[in-house]
Design goal:
The complex is a heterodimer of chains A (about 250) and B (about 425). Chain A is mainly α and about 250 residues long. Chain A contains 7 helices and 4 strands. The longest helix of chain B has about 30 residues. Chain B is globular. Classes of the chains: A mainly alpha (about 250), B mainly alpha (about 425). The complex binds protoporphyrin IX containing FE (HEM).
Amino acid sequence: MNFVRVVAAAALLAFAVPASANAAAEEIKFPPQNWSFSGPFGTFDRASAQRGFQVYSEVCAACHTVKQAYYRDLKGIGLEPKEIEAIAAAVTIADIGDDGQPMERPGRPSDRFRSPFPNERAARAAYNGAYPADLSVIVKARAGGADQLYSLLVGYDKPPADMKIGDGLYYNKYFTGHQIAMPAPLSDGQVEYADGTRASVEQMSRDVTTFFAYIAEPESEVRKRLGVKVVLFLLFMTGITYAVKRRVWADVH
Amino acid sequence: MAGLHKSEISNPVLNWIDSRLPIFTMIQKEYGVFPTPRNFNYFWNFGALAMINLVIMIATGIFLAMNYTPHATMAFDSVERIMRDVNNGWLLRYVHANGASMFFIVVYIHMLRSLYYGSYKAPRELLWILGVIILLLMMATAFMGYVLPWGQMSYWGATVITNLFSAFPIVGESIVTWLWGGYSVDNATLNRFFSLHYLLPFVLVGVVFLHVAALHVTGSNNPLGIDVKTPQDTLPFHPYYTMKDSVGICVYLLVFAILVFFAPNYLGHSDNYIPANPLVTPAHIVPEWYFLPFYAILRSVPDKLGGVLLMFGSIGVLAVLPWLDTSPVRSASFRPVYRILFWVLVLACVVLGIAGGKPAEGVWVWLSRVATAYYFLHFLVILPILGKFERPLPLPESISRAVLGRDGGFGGGGGGLMPGGAVAKPMEKA
Ligand code: HEM
């Protein structure tokens, strides 16, 4: 009886189950993209992520919060401390002064990304009751991950002739129900990239997705690098331990 | 000296302690020279793995708790803070979250091992029942832990599962309100779940201790399922099984590390990265993967109370299994029919696991019903009858005879050790 092999197969199957369970909830297919950061050795394309930060600051930041991120996190996409200080200082942060009165001051690297609205209710009031989601972990919060965010941003199109689009809603191929309260945020040439990259909708979407993939998992490069070391160490330990075990058992069978 | 234990430990300091509190003698007796069947295969690693897993959960959990805030408005952000700002916090959390999955993988395999080799039969019934209690405690702990990050699945999972109790007539609604500490899942619920999530693992430690204590009274079962008869049938636990367990631990850690470092969210649900929102119900509310078979059983019954009873019943039948299985033979290696039905049962559980993750419609409902029916049929009808009619294969005389009639390998699955082999030996010589 090959108990060992069948159980191994069952264990593999068990791993496949949750993936298929998630897939069931998602009818829309998002075309898979090539991301610099995918795979066990992937790293964030620094230039793309920096351009993505520019798209976020000039476009998305008008409506979306990124509450979990700090300006100092920008170090991870290759910005220098001086640049980060300048970026933070250009933002006005609401605070309480030494006199106990509300005041405004220039941002610091230790500040969280500035929110465009004081709270969720204010945001909903501005968008017909729709809420521009916090984008801190958006890439992890959608089953389709980075592909889904990218698809959403390039997915605006003319609605099919037979579809009635509600008031204040826009047609998007990749949004559940295909009607989204977010107007197409990107159009060709909307931002001007300092490095001369042409700012097509696809390019900006790709860049801003890379940026949000970083913001969702700022630890990911460190994690994977440590992971490679840990796995190599454990492979080595497995080998040694198995050899010793064979030696110990040699005399009993 | 009167009142002192006669210790054989040579180190004077340890000897002094051991004479007054013989823990070193005990360790030596229970884990050093402890006589262990010589024919274990690698499935006998999973108990040790489960124990290590429990320690890992408690260690990471305590450090998570230092940084976690159990409040409905702060829990989600505090978990993100652990991921971003706490030194190696991402490692702590990913080890803890994936550790829960590893724990269930290990314990499910451990249980399947017991089912296959008949480890639940006399004299190990109580040992097995303690195992079922461990499973229940683990489930309660994992369920409440999953609520703590206060994402959408945390919130709605808690709502769905606690609501099950409302199925009980008359007292149902009051029980639910009592569980929640209010009229919906809210801050009070989160707080008590955190408290219990911290407490139950230590209760687990206690029950695990009893589980192991009971094991050390009866001794271990083995792939042949026959009793240890002579010292030739056993090996001292150390160094043989300490080494064999070490190999298992390394492989286990390898799988664990690959999950944590390269696919930390693979077994989780993306919706749990959306903060809990009582006003927005997720399209499909699904529990963690390790609960999916039970979830499928629950949903296979059109009646809510019936579903709840069947779900709890599916674990209840395990508790009385030692008395449902009437066959005197333990190992499936010598039970030709049971051996096949065992795999049918595994298949039924896998089908339940898959169906539990799908929306409760169409073919999935029917598949869950068929699998649920088989699950209960297997335990309640087939096993009691089968033991009376099945013709078991002849059992080997002893473990040592069976093992020494065969070369090399690592203890081999019991299946390879057909008694025919032992009988055939003399004939070959002739
Ligand atoms: C039987 C052992 C345990 C199991 C099966 C278990 C399971 C879990 C699970 C499934 C989660 C949710 C993980 C997530 O998705 O984020 C969790 C979270 C948590 N657990 Fe445990 N746990 C165990 C022991 C402990 C212990 C002993 C402590 C404290 C001393 C603890 C403290 C926490 C804390 C603070 C969280 C919230 C942080 C987070 O969500 O990552 N756990 N646990």
